[in-house]
Every structure is written in structure tokens, then in C-alpha cells.
Predict the structure.
Amino acid sequence: MSEYDAESPPEGFAELIGLVWRDIGRAASMAFLGFGDEVSVTNHLEKQRAVNEFSLHIQFPWRLASSTETLVASNDMY
């Protein structure tokens, strides 16, 4: 597995650097991480609901780490 850091994030991830991590959850084997401000959207039933500005959906082994420790990893969710 490749290693990345804040100075060289993978393509498409740069927008997430520095945003507040607000949410985490899973649906079956897919994890989702919510970042950024809460925004209001209208769903298919015409109801307003709050969602995160960005949502990252992941279906492979992953881990979020600081420079000194692992914060959470895919195996922590089961």
C-alpha cells in the first residue's frame, strides 16, 4: 500500500486537507467519512436534511493517521 502525507495527497484529495472531519459510518462493507461544513439539501421526498459538504466513500482497507498514531482504520468499524 502506498503512503501519502499532507504535502503530497493523492489526486482528488487536496480539497479535504484542512477540513473538519465531522462524520463516520458504514453501509455493509463501505465506509463513509464526512468532511467540511454541514449543508442543507432536499432529498427525493422533498424533505430538507443536513449533510456534510464532502463525503468520501471507501470500499478497500484504509487508515487515518496523524504523524504519531493511527486514529481509525477499516477493521475498527466491525
Remarks:
- The longest strand covers residues 30-42.
